[in-house]
Amino acid sequence: MKRNKILSIKISFALALLLSCFLATAQRPTVEVLTSGNGISLRGLSVVNDNVIWVSGNKGTVGRSNNGGKTWKWMTVTGFEKNDFRDIEGFDGATAVIMTVAEPAYILKTTDGGETWKVVYENRTKGMFLDAMEFWNEQAGIIVGDPIDGRFFITRTFDGGNTWQDIPFANRPVADSGEACFAASGTNIRALDRDEAVFVSGGLKSRMFKRTSGIKLSIIQGQETTGANSIAVWDKLKVHAGKRIIVVGGDFNKPESTTKNCFYTMNGGKSWEAPNTPPHGYRSCVEYFSKTDLFSCGLNGVDYTHDGGKNWKWISKESFHVVRASKLGAAIFLAGIDGKIGKIVW
Predict the structure, then answer these.
(1) What are phi and psi of 4, to 5 degrees?
(2) Which residues does 47 contact at the CB level (< 8 Å), separation at least 6?
(3) CA-CA distance, 281 to 149, in Å (whole number)?
(4) What distance in Å separates the CA atoms of residue 137 and residue 197, rounded to the nearest whole number?
(5) In whole angstroms, what is the distance from residue 305 CA to residue 40 CA?
(6) Which of 71, 124, 239, 280 has its C-alpha lying 20 to 30 A from 300's C-alpha?
(7) What is the pLDDT at residue 105?
(8) How far is it, in rounded angstroms, from Cα 291 to Cα 244?
(9) Mean pLDDT, consecutive 10-residue segments, the chain of 346 residues?
(10) What is the pLDDT of residue 212?
(11) Parallel, antiparallel, or unpaired: how do β-strands 262-265 and 285-288 relate?
């Protein structure tokens, strides 16, 4: 009887272990590729809700889905067929703002689902290069650009992108020699709280900026191809010292390298920690899904962490430039080379 009881306990334990492993595997997210093959490099992505998604890329291309990525409407913006729209912000199925990168810099807005676009900003200053755009809400937004005459370019809107006001030169953050931003995924600037934004730089030096103050990052730096590419902030509507922030990047000339490619902070940047298991290569974007669940993507795949960034798992080897979570839902989408669009599935 005793032997049977011990055997029963062992079987029960084994079954429980198998069930636990099965549940853990079942709950691990994977990537489903929804569409690809149009030859467009997509770096702009905005997920309004679980149904409405906007993307933007080179060759003047904008895409929109109103049914959760099942079908897409592709548009080439008239007069901008050779421009690269590196970032996009969607507000609903009809309204969106897009930005070009190199000089002259343009910002355009549509209110009819992309049928027509209005130029709401133009800047022909020599050296103009816009990197990323962020909105706190449907009215207030900000765009950061590479340094001009030694200071990072910043412009703001307070009316939903209809008009933009450049920050006075004297109030712009000072850049070091060889320091700039990467227009890799439209996520190197993020809202920190209701009033503040933070952005990250790369190149010969990599820092996180809040207003004009720059905090040196531990991420790999020292070459034009190295540094921080993306920053994400959790709980950005609250103001508190324990702000969770994470930064990813690396060396885009070494897609497989995990050297100093990710750091996170639990105290708003006062101190930073490296993951026990970092993302599995250079990463151009990072996104919070919950307080502890994050996704990051790059040239050699997609990583996921369920412990706030301490340990990352390689969940897909599909290449993507950007990953964004729904503002008003639970969906997570990705976009990248050759018109590839993916979705996180659980």
Answers:
(1) -60, -40
(2) 53, 90, 324, 325, 326, 327, 329, 331, 332, 333
(3) 33
(4) 13
(5) 29
(6) 71
(7) 96
(8) 8
(9) 41 38 61 97 98 98 98 98 98 98 95 98 96 97 98 98 98 96 97 93 97 92 97 79 90 98 94 97 97 97 98 98 96 98 97
(10) 82
(11) unpaired
62, 73 Cβ separation under 8 angstroms: no
For tokens 């929109």, name the residue.
64
| Alpha-carbon gap, residue 303 to 295, rounded angstroms | 6
Least Cα distance to 35 among 346, 336, 240, 265 occurs for 336
Domains and CATH numbers, the chain: 30-345 (2.130.10.10)
> What is the per-residue pLDDT for 238?
65
Tokens of 155: 């412009």
The residue written with tokens 């010969």 in the block is 204
pLDDT at res. 18: 39
Token digits of residue 71: 């079908």
Q: Which of 195, 250, 243, 256 is nearest to 228 (CA)?
A: 250
